[in-house]
Amino acid sequence: MAELTIDAVVFDVLGTLVDEPAGLRTGIRSLDPSSALDGPGTERLLLLWQRHIEREQRRIVDGDRPYLPSDALDREAAEVVARAAGAEVPAAMAGPDAVESLARAARRLPPWPDTVAGLARLAEHFPLIGLSNASRTALLELNAHAGLRWHQALSAEDARTYKPDPAVYRLAVTVAGLPPDRLLMVAAHAWDLRGAQALGLRTAYVARPVGDPPTSSDRFDLYAEDLADLADQLGVS
């Protein structure tokens, strides 16, 4: 720990601090109040959503598609899911209102059990910066719904691209006014940490059931079981 000296902590939000799949499952099931979309049906539609978002964000990062904020991509994903649900379960045929409600499910995500207490504990010792691919509006609702505590919350919308584009991580470096190696990026996604690492930030992987685990070739500064473990490793009482 002696070689890791940091002055601010930067947190990914989706998947790291909030359980994104759980919130999306709730939205998907609301398309059909019966049990028709339980179990495998819900998981199939969730995968459709996730693949759409990942593919379209990557296209934007690669310059193959003009920038759109996460709200617009969420609505696209909701339309894809609603069409697929209607094809499989006629009762789930969704009109514009149902699609809009499903899209907004991406902003109503529950925090992990350790999130709120972990952020509060860390906030007593470090400036905390949220850095999310969610739009400004979505991030505001996410923070309020999950009870997330920040000193500053930054959206990739300000860089008009998505992580892992270096421009997004640069937002946190600029706001902090610190050298990159004085910032610790915390995420449950190895791809996110690699992006931060490429810009010179220090990195901490936090294990989550829905994350992207490190590979054998990854070398992050810290590996934590949860935020309490992370705080312990950072010497936070």
From TrEMBL:
This protein's record includes keyword Hydrolase: yes
Give the GO molecular function terms.
hydrolase activity, acting on acid halide bonds, in C-halide compounds
Q: Which residues form a coiled coil?
A: none
Pfam families, sorted: Hydrolase
* CDD domains xref list: HAD_L2-DEX
Alphabetized, the UniProt keywords read:
Hydrolase
Which PANTHER family has this protein been placed in? HALOACID DEHALOGENASE, TYPE II (AFU_ORTHOLOGUE AFUA_2G07750)-RELATED, HYDROLASE, HALOACID DELAHOGENASE-RELATED
Full protein name: Haloacid dehalogenase type II
Please give the organism.
Streptomyces parvus
